[in-house]
Design brief:
homodimer, alpha/beta, Ubiquitin-like (UB roll), Nucleotidyltransferase, domain 5, 15 helices, DUF4445 domain-containing protein (chains A, B)
Chain lengths: 511, 511
């Protein structure tokens, strides 16, 4: 593995009067013989004695890439080169997930995720930004909340596999621009305020100790392209590598915000917009995150709604993938029309609840007309981002080889249902790929492959950012996309065909 | 000035929606336009806001060379590029001297020196080394004593000229190998124990904060060549630049130890040995350092000893330059013979004091026969180093263009007296140069001229170390040099001639 850290076992000659080079030079020249030019940190110089003497000059050197060269960060007795670990963290505004990686094998040895402790200062990013604005004390609280969340992950990892963070050389971090600003203790008001020039977008390698992360080397924060296209997207691109494809691809990270990249090795056209918290179960009255108790799958059969509950217990609410299934099933069965309006005559499960129509998708749990309307805006926004970007880049959907939908939503949602409601474009389902947490995957990638650093520069160079909010067409296109699956049915041939087939079957059954 | 720090005033464009590059990129690209590739430290990233906004993006950037590239370490409001300071410290085992340098003009604005606080743990280096050996606690005391002495200098400098260390970017340090080991918290037993392989000889640039020095950038420690040829010698060479001369030169740093370098741009042959603390007033019974109350000049006229006292008050003892003068005068006037034996019949000032002969060189102050014998060993060692190195390099004294005798002793001693007693070689006095504290001068040099860093590598490459202790000839040669000026008078033609002239005059007066 040629990552951003190395562990090299050296068997050095013991000093003699004829060869009394310093301990430092022995290490540096020993590494040079292995093809590595390195400097030694003060901490590692302090470890030379008595270690080298007691170990007969058989030591293992930890090397950390620091942005422009290799730094020796640690010396250990004997050959510990097989114990070579690194950490990768996806610093999300809601969840912070850290992986412990065996840098010899590339294997993920442990993973730990916790809610971002910054939630105490606001569930959404904007609240947090306002909380910190022009208050160094509040900013410091926000910074340490991020660090503490990571430390919580590290503690759990240590408890699980017995490997301390001090045994890890590097940590890579992918996070959006706000998250990285907070981690570094930087004011993040710039992210959401015109002219959207942020403070730091390429922090690079910073000493772990400076950030408060007890790794032996550095913390590398993925660089971002702009305020809305942060290191999580750069990292996601590094994971799916559409910038290496000859054919055109789409990378779509849908969460609270949606970030979209269309391109290949020639170009990367990017956009970002508020996809809506609906996807994470927000806004919707009984919405919840995809945790125990959430309905994540819905099927209507013989007039009954079958809801699958995460954890197999009692349903407590519905998460994004459940909503998409529910809407698709309601639509396929004609319980909602193409505008998403509930048709109470179609099922006794549709009833009035406090002045609004609602469908009871699980015992005592209702999905309201307002919830549907809200979600339709979300799905229309998501679809329109893709459509708009295709238009902007002069590319037709047929030319797209793959559509990556990253993130937890993409991973859990049924592709079929997402196409049915017109959220995903209607293409061959094998071309719709759900790679999961690409932000975290990209963080692991760079840990294990230093050449990704060059690729990141390439990615940043190629990325061209288009602001959706700035274009009038966007809203018109989105309005057309509010229908199920779309005002223009020609855009959804497989859905149209499926609906026609069902109508045919219904008619035949009706006979 | 093209030193190891820079201050660059930037007038950057304010961000607009069309150009919303990050603050970080504005600084980096602003510097790039000035021809400087730099990274930004976390501290400087944190200074971007609100500074850039309040100052209309007119800021001054402090840049510190960190060994492989430039690091932005600080941002300031407006144009402060004229306030560009650096610090240079000569970390001596006895005295620690720091200069504050105006890096725009190269001018030394202030200088402060204090006794090394490590003296509390031993006046000589060996005692200190044993004190620390295998005791991390004692080593930490030793380390912080060095740092505290430097901080004392910085405090005095601040009190004198009102410039705080935080306003300085870099500090350069020249010190011998032991001193640098202690400063970094490294065990220094290696310096004096076979096989004389030290731990760190090229520490390079370390963050000020890591060392405990509150500069804004790094602390650069001059690299050493070997245990006895430390950074103070490399620094001294960088100051006198004999490695650039076409003709052969000698660099001789005499203090408690003597380090000698002979060479030119082709080669640098080096040796080191215990010159003896006698030169700094040690060993000799009434010896003292060259401070107030010390006799620093002696003249015998009409049978009377005229002693000049530093500070013009009452004599309290005698320092190195006073001793050399005293011995030269005693010898010229025949009060001691060529073996240095006091001849009591020559002056009533020579009398028995507690069983030993002694000469009263100032009211109530005596220089004893044992003191003379001790000092003759010192001067013989010093002379023999030069003679031995000339022999080793196959060079005759006539081929030597200049002899630099650096250090406080060299600066204060009378060249004429030093030649008379056979301590300095008998060459044209204009070729005997006393450049003063070259260790400190070299530290200032690199602060102001980054290209010295390359020259240092060149110096280290060229240096070839010869251990005096290892050669048998050395002791024989030293024995011959114990006489005044030398057993072989042909080596001292000007002294021989002077003595002959005096004898002639005495005879004429006697007529």
């Amino acid at each position: 593995m040629k990552g951003i850290s190395r562990k090299i076992y050296l068997e050095l000659d013991e000093p003699t009067e004829e060869d009394n080079r310093s301990g430092q030079m022995r290490i540096i020249e020993g590494l040079r013989a292995e093809g590595i030019e390195a400097r030694m940190s003060l901490a590692s110089l302090k470890e030379l004695y008595p270690l080298c003497e007691t170990e007969g000059w058989k030591v293992t050197v930890s090397l950390a890439w620091e942005g422009s060269g290799w730094m020796v960060t640690r010396l250990e007795a004997g050959d510990t080169s097989a114990k070579h670990y690194g950490l990768a963290t996806d610093l999300g505004s809601t969840t912070v997930v850290t992986r412990l990686v065996d840098c010899c094998t590339g294997q993920v040895l442990a993973e730990s995720g916790h809610y971002n402790r910054q939630i105490a200062y606001g569930t959404d990013i904007l609240t947090r930004i306002f909380y910190c604005k022009d208050s160094p004390e509040a900013l410091e609280k926000m910074r340490s909340a991020a660090v503490d969340t990571i430390l919580e992950n590290l503690k759990e990892i240590e408890e699980t596999v017995g490997i301390r963070p001090e045994e890890c050389i590097q940590m890579t971090v992918s996070g959006n621009t706000t998250m990285v600003h907070f981690l570094l203790g930087l004011d993040a008001f710039c992210v959401f305020a015109a002219p959207y020039a942020v403070w730091a977008d390429q922090p690079g390698f910073l000493k772990g100790i400076e950030i408060g992360i007890p790794v032996n080397g550095y913390v590398f924060c993925y660089p971002g392209k702009s305020n809305y296209l942060g290191g999580d997207i750069t990292s996601g691109l590094a994971a799916v590598k559409i910038y290496k494809e000859e054919e055109l691809c789409i990378f779509f990270d849908i969460g609270t915000n949606g970030e979209l990249v269309i391109g290949n090795r020639e170009f990367l056209l990017c956009g970002a917009g508020a996809a809506g918290p609906a996807l994470e179960g927000g806004v919707v009255r009984t919405g919840m995150r995809a945790v125990k108790g959430a309905v994540d799958r819905v099927r209507i059969e013989n007039g009954e709604i079958h809801s699958h509950v995460l954890g197999e217990g009692k349903a407590e609410g519905i998460c994004g993938s459940g909503i998409v299934d529910l809407l698709a099933e309601l639509f396929k069965n004609g319980w909602i029309d193409l505008r998403g309006k509930l048709e109470p005559e179609k099922s006794p499960l549709i009833e009035r609840q406090g002045g609004s129509l609602a469908v009871e998708y699980a015992p005592g749990l209702f999905f309201f007309q307002e919830d549907i309307d809200e979600f339709l805006r979300t799905k229309a926004a998501a679809y329109t981002m893709v459509e708009y970007m295709l238009m902007e880049s002069g590319v037709s959907l047929d030319e797209i080889l793959k559509v990556y939908v990253s993130g937890a939503f993409g991973k859990h949602v049924s592709k079929e249902s997402a196409v049915t409601i017109g959220m995903y474009p209607d293409i061959d389902r094998t071309r719709l790929i759900s790679p999961g947490n690409t932000s975290l995957d990209g963080a692991v990638e760079v840990l294990l492959d230093k050449s990704i650093l060059d690729e990141i520069d390439e990615i940043l160079d190629k990325m061209v950012y288009i602001q959706f909010g700035a274009v009038e067409d966007f809203l018109q296109m989105m309005t057309a996309a509010l229908a199920l699956p779309h005002t223009d049915l020609e855009k959804f041939p497989s859905v149209t065909e499926m609906l026609a087939r069902r109508r045919q079957m219904d008619m035949e059954e009706g006979d």
